[in-house]
Amino acid sequence: MNIPLKITFVTLATTATASTLLGFCPVSQAETRQVTICRPVQKVRVVQDAAAHPAAYRDGYREGQQSASKDEPFEPRTAGGEFARGFEDGYYGRPFTGQQYEVQDRTETYTTQQCDTVTIEED
């Protein structure tokens, strides 16, 4: 490689490297700060009636059988409703009769806050 070609190559390489470095390094240091922004958001949750949800009798029956198999003394359930009826049937070994009535799960809408933190650059 001859000398003028080497000089041209080195000059081009230096110019490309310097412009790349200058592009990524700011001339003045920018200040940054973080800001938290909160906004109200509506959410939905499912609420089950502990005594009469769609599977209350089945759950009570299963727990009654388990309680009886462990020789635990019978204690009436505070949930009442279909759950208590199922528990009693399961505990005493009565036939599984299934749910007599069903209270559908209901939904509740509630409002909560959703917050995001953003970084702001200031000159």
The number of helical runs is 3
The helix fraction, in percent, is 25-40%
Largest sheet: 2 strands, antiparallel
Task: Calculate the terminal CA-CA distance, rounded to whole Å.
Answer: 48 Å
Low-confidence stretches: none
Kindly estimate the percentage of residues that lie in beta strands according to DSSP.
25-35%
Strand arrangement within the widest β-sheet reads 1-2
Order of helices and strands: HEHHE
Secondary structure tally: strands: 2
Q: Shape, please?
A: elongated
Average per-residue pLDDT, rounded, comes to 80
Could you walk me through the main structural features you see in this protein, from its secondary elements to its overall organization?
With 123 residues, the protein is of the alpha+beta class. The protein is built from three helices and two strands. The protein has a two-stranded antiparallel ribbon. The model has no long low-confidence stretch (mean pLDDT 80).
Concise overview:
The chain is of the alpha+beta class. Helix content is 38%, strand content 28%. The chain has helices at 3-24, 56-69, 81-91, and strands at 31-47, 106-122.
What keyword list fits this structure?
two-stranded antiparallel sheet
